[in-house]
Amino acid sequence: MLKSRVNRLRDILRVKNLDALLLQGSVNLRYFCGFTGSDGALLVTLHQTLFLTDSRYTTQAKTEVLADDVLEYSDKLAAMDHQFNVLLVKHVGFESKVLSVDQFHRLENKCSTLTFQAVDDELSSLRQIKDEEELSFLDEAARLNCVAFQEVFPRIQAGMTEREVALDLEFTLRRLGGEDKAFDLIVASGVRGALPHGIASDKKIECGELVTIDFGTRCNGYYSDETVTFGVGNVSDQLRTMFDVVLHAHDLALESLEIAVAAKEVDRVARDYIHDHGFGEYFGHGLGHGVGLEVHESPTLSPRSEVRLGAGMVFTVEPGIYVPGVGGVRIEDTVLLSMDGYRCLTQCQKSYRAITCT
Ligand code: ZN
Ligand code: ZN
Q1: Coil, helix or strand for 308?
Q2: DSSP 58-73
Q3: CB within 5 A of ion ligand 2: which residues?
Q4: How far apart are CA 298 and CA 286, in angstroms?
Q5: What is the CA(11)–ligand 1 centre distance, in A?
Q6: CA distance 144 to 147
Q7: 2-127 has which fold?
Q8: Distance from Cα 227 to the centre of ligand 2, integer Å
Q9: Which CATH architecture has domain 129-355?
Q10: What are the residue ranges spanned by the domains of the chain?
Q11: From ligand 2's centre to the CA of 288, what distance in Å?
């Protein structure tokens, strides 16, 4: 499996006319050579793969990493420069989104005879199509979401703060086996629901409000991402209309999924429906994003996306309406597109429900 991934890296070398790829980001190191530590470098040429790391990780790397050789350094830049010279490398593809400007300047100064070319997009597009093992980890992360939410939901009551709900959910996800939270969990109630990224606050949840909870965890490095919106007692007709419009936009977008459909077309289906119901100006973000070793990765589903969706891609569908001073709704599933159609990995109930208000 890792071997075929390295072979696809070599396709990048051929297409871009590069002598080597230099990978240092933890996500790409994990994906392309199996390393789960925090500091190392993978050098890939047409004929060789070398993994460089320091003494903290040498033993770990020797068991985890698929490479022709694992080498230990005390000075990372000097070690990379030395290997580039040994391998007669001149043109190097690298991850411009991983290195800071400072790190890149140091690399350029140390390896002054080399030329560097960013290959971030090529690397992330290789990770778009998930294999069976990746899908099993994504399924497990999504399953934990469902089990945790089913446990926590009956405990949510008016009078609790958003933070109390978020902590309960976060703790439950970890207790069930999640490695970490996927991001700062969003619990946005009432008017705070109009903040698309309303991280849980000390605000109390009150009767008559909608509550939006966006949450996820991580299993074997792979993330879950899901959003549920529900009512607290009776909500206004306006809030209920917003909910129904978002749910229908979500369902229409799912129904539009098929192999080779343009990602922006799926976005358009949901966006047009929301627009036609008078809420167009209140849906500002893209419809979805890829999910894998990163919570947000390729492909992007937005009006500007140029991707066509393919079998094996895993991405979110998450339309929303956010009306300042009133409230908000978002409904999000993470889905797998395959030759058989689509399948929601995330399983929490998305249709309307309300907790009782006492
Ligand atoms: Zn989310
Ligand atoms: Zn998302």
Answers
A1: strand
A2: HHHHHHH--SSEEEE-
A3: 225, 316
A4: 13
A5: 33
A6: 5
A7: Creatine Amidinohydrolase; Chain A, domain 1 (3.40.350)
A8: 8
A9: Alpha-Beta Complex (3.90)
A10: 2-127, 129-355
A11: 6
Closest ligand to C-alpha of residue 296 is 2
State which H helix or E strand residue 300 sits in. strand 297-301
Predicted pLDDT at 197:
86
Rounded to whole angstroms, the Cα distance separating 186 from 231 reads 16
Say if pTM beats, i.e. exceeds, 0.85.
yes
Q: Which of 62, 63, 218, 61 is nearest to 134 (CA)?
A: 218
Give Cα 100 distance to the centre of its chain. Answer: 21
Token pair of 18 as six digits: 């590069």
Q: Give me the mean pLDDT over the 254-282 stretch.
A: 98
Residue 358 has pLDDT above 90, yes or no: no
Q: Is 88 left (phi over 0), alpha (psi -120 to 50) or beta?
A: left
Same fold, 2-127 and 129-355: no
Please write the tens of the pLDDT for every residue from 142-184.
999 999 999 999 999 999 999 999 999 999 999 999 999 999 9
The residues, any chain, with a CB within 8 Å of residue 55's CB and separated by 6 or more, are 72, 74
When pLDDT is averaged across residues 84-92 and rounded to a whole number, the result is: 95
Residue type, 20: A
Mean pLDDT of 51-72: 95
Edge-first strand listing for the sheet containing 49-53: 69-72, 49-53, 41-44, 20-23, 91-94, 115-118
**The residue count for the chain:** 358
Q: What is the 3-state secondary structure (H, E, C) of 272-299?
A: HHHHHCCCHHHCCCCCEEECCCCCCEEE
Contact in structure between 146 and 333 (CB atoms under 8 Å): no
Neighbours of 28 (CB within 10 A): 24
| The token pair that represents 151 in the structure block | 């446990």
In this prediction, residue 237 has a pLDDT band, given cuts at 50, 70 and 90, of very high
Output the pLDDT for position 2. Answer: 85
What CA–CA distance (Å, rounded) separates 154 from 231?
Answer: 13
pLDDT, tens digit, 9 for 90 and up, residues 296-333: 999 999 999 999 999 999 999 999 999 999 999 999 99
pLDDT of residue 241: 98
Measured in Å, residue 330 CA sits from the centre of ligand 2 at 10
Segment 73-86, tens digit of pLDDT: 999 999 999 999 99
Whether 238 shows a pLDDT value over 80: the answer reads yes
